[in-house]
Amino acid sequence: MAISGISGGYSNWSPLSAISARPASTTALEAASDLDKVRDKGLVAFAKEAKKDAWEEKLKQWKAEAMKTMGLTEESLAAMTPDQRTAALQQVDEAVKARIKEAMDGAKAQAKNGLAVSNFVDLSV
């Protein structure tokens, strides 16, 4: 008999998995969800995915800021000729690359000065 109603039986059920199956609306629920992800994927894979997701979000933010600074929108890009759109997107890419370089240079400077915070994973729940 499967408590979840799907399969796997009682041994796969846990209070944390039951909580994380609901929409995560509080920090405690998000922490339980992260704990389930660590259990499913392993700590190293979870940390790599979290770092990748954070970088993807940062890149989206920097792209949006660059487009806003240049007065570009998705609609204005769609209205451009292919050559104009390519040139505009190259400018956006260059602005994002500049932000990446700034971030990397800042991290290197902090590390050189001993101000860098070591990477760690907080497993507190």
How many distinct beta strands? 0
User: What is the mean pLDDT?
Assistant: 77
Molecular shape: flat
Q: Provide the low-confidence segments as ranges.
A: 1-20
Structure classification: mainly alpha
Written as H for each helix and E for each strand, in order along the chain, the element string is: HHHHH
Cα end-to-end separation: 30 Å
Largest sheet: none
The total count of helices amounts to 5
The proportion of residues in beta strands is under 5%
Portion in helices: 55-70%
Alpha carbon gyration radius = 22 Å
What order do the helices and strands come in, and which of them pair?
Layout: H1 15-20, H2 27-41, H3 43-69, H4 74-79, H5 82-112
Helix pairs in contact: 2-3, 3-5
Task: Give structural notes.
It is a single chain. With 125 residues, the protein is mainly α. Helix content is 68%, strand content 0%. It has 5 helices and no strands. The protein has helices at residues 15-20, 27-41, 43-69, 74-79, 82-112. The relative contact order is 0.07. The model is unreliable at 1-20 (pLDDT under 50).
